[in-house]
Structure formats: structure tokens, C-alpha cells
Amino acid sequence: MELSRQLQRKISSQDAIDSVLAALREEGILNDNRFIENFIRYRRTQGYGPLRIQAELLERGIEQDLIEHHLKITDNAWLDEVRKAWQKRFKNRLPLDFKSRAQQMRFLRYRGFTFEQINLLFQSSDPAHD
Predict the structure, then answer these.
(1) Is residue 129 situated within a structural domain?
(2) How far apart are alpha carbons 130 and 4 in whole angstroms?
């Protein structure tokens, strides 16, 4: 979808755009699966959670089925990622009151982690412990 938008700025014929995209797919240059894998890896290393990554992929025109196949939102590996994002932002400081806990939870939700992932982080007695 992104490439199609860019080509529309240069080429006025939709048929020509479609044929270019088809040729790129045939050559293996344009591959949605490879794009999804790389995008997930890139955003994950930046500290973003599965819900945020999913939304960004949907904005880029990737089909929901493909996203679900690659993203695996309920994978336990996301627990490590939510812990890393929390440690980086809050320096292992546990929330002392409701207000600070809500602030930390809002940050992690904005980053795209699920309520379950965030709750599991805070349910442990020491989230800083690996």
C-alpha cells in the first residue's frame, strides 16, 4: 500500500502501478511476510507492544490474518518486552500509590501492551527481577 501511494505520485495510470507491483512480487522483491517480520522486529526493539505494532501494520494496509500469523499477541515473550520498556522508562521504581501506578500503566498501554501483560508485570512482587 505504501509503495502504491508513492508510485501514484509519479505515475498516473493505475494499470501501470498494478503491473509494476505485480512484477516486484514475482521477482520476490516485494514480500508482505518479510516486511511484517522486519517491521515487528524493528518496533519491538524500540519498546513497542503488540497492540501498537498491530495498529501500525493495519494503517500500512497489511491484512489482519497476516498480522495475527506473525505477531502472536498472547506470546509470553511479550512479558520480557513489557518489563524492558518499564525498566527503561521508570528505572525499576515500583509505583508507590494509585496515581503513579496509573501513570506507569498509561505509559505501557500507550506503547501498545495489553492489560494482561501489564497486570502480570505489576502482579509480581518485584518487576525489576528477571
Answers:
(1) no
(2) 44
Mean pLDDT of 28-45: 91
Q: CA–CA separation, 102 vs 127, rounded Å?
A: 16
Report how far residue 17's alpha carbon sits from residue 117's, in angstroms, rounded to the nearest whole number: 42
Residue 56's Cβ-count burial label (10 Å; 0-12, 13-18, 19+) is middle
Range of the domain at 17: 2-71
User: Which tens digits make up the pLDDT trace of 64-107?
Assistant: 999 999 998 888 889 999 999 999 999 988 888 999 999 999 99
> Do 18 and 67 sit in the same domain of this protein?
yes
Nearest to 95 by CA among 83, 85, 105, 81: 105
